[in-house]
Write a structure and sequence with these properties.
The chain is mostly helical and 171 residues long. 64% of the residues lie in helices and 0% in strands. The chain starts with a helix and ends in a 10-residue tail after the last helix. The relative contact order is 0.12.
Length: 171
């Protein structure tokens, strides 16, 4: 490698590192307020797609769009119970997945979340769950667990599962 090529690669490396640093700062900025969710309006299309992918067999065919909105609202409600540090991490994850660059690099989606079909979303979820970088796998589990807790925590879903409800009422 000659000196000119070395300088070009070095400059390109600095540019990429600087860009990644800027993106990291952008994604890391999450405002956590007690008893409020870190979910922003810009995250909602992604959460609708994730609800469709995660709850594919559980969502009713009648009033499908309404069920997706219910699942997303339940997800948002479930996030309010998280600790401040967990909410900050979740907010960073949502910011990364909502961003076109993060969506392409992590979710491997070239199109928007609104345009993604159920198969594409499920393929992303499986690859995210089984990602070779173990540090990314908890992101899948957070999204999965919050969506499932939100949906199956609704008393309206209990009858479909044959669950009569808790044996006592907590006041």
């Amino acid at each position: 490698m000659n000196r000119r090529r070395f300088i070009k690669f070095g400059a390109a490396g600095l540019f990429v590192a600087g860009g990644l640093g800027w993106l990291g700062k952008h994604f890391a900025k999450v405002d956590v307020i007690a008893a409020q969710s870190v979910v922003q309006p810009r995250h909602l299309p992604m959460l609708r797609a994730l609800a469709t992918g995660l709850l594919d067999g559980a969502l009713p065919t009648a009033k499908h769009a309404e069920a997706i909105e219910t699942a997303v609202n339940s997800f948002v409600t479930a996030t309010k119970t998280l600790s401040a540090s967990a909410q900050a991490e979740l907010g960073q994850l949502l910011n990364i997945l909502e961003n076109p660059v993060g969506r392409r690099l992590i979710a491997n989606l070239g199109n928007t979340w609104e345009e993604a079909n159920t198969g594409q979303v499920q393929a992303f979820l499986i690859s995210f769950r089984d990602h070779p970088i173990p540090a990314l796998q908890p992101g899948y589990h957070a999204l999965h667990d919050l969506m499932m807790a939100g949906w199956y925590g609704l008393p309206a879903q209990w009858a479909d599962m044959g669950y009569p409800g808790p044996p006592f009422r907590v006041y």
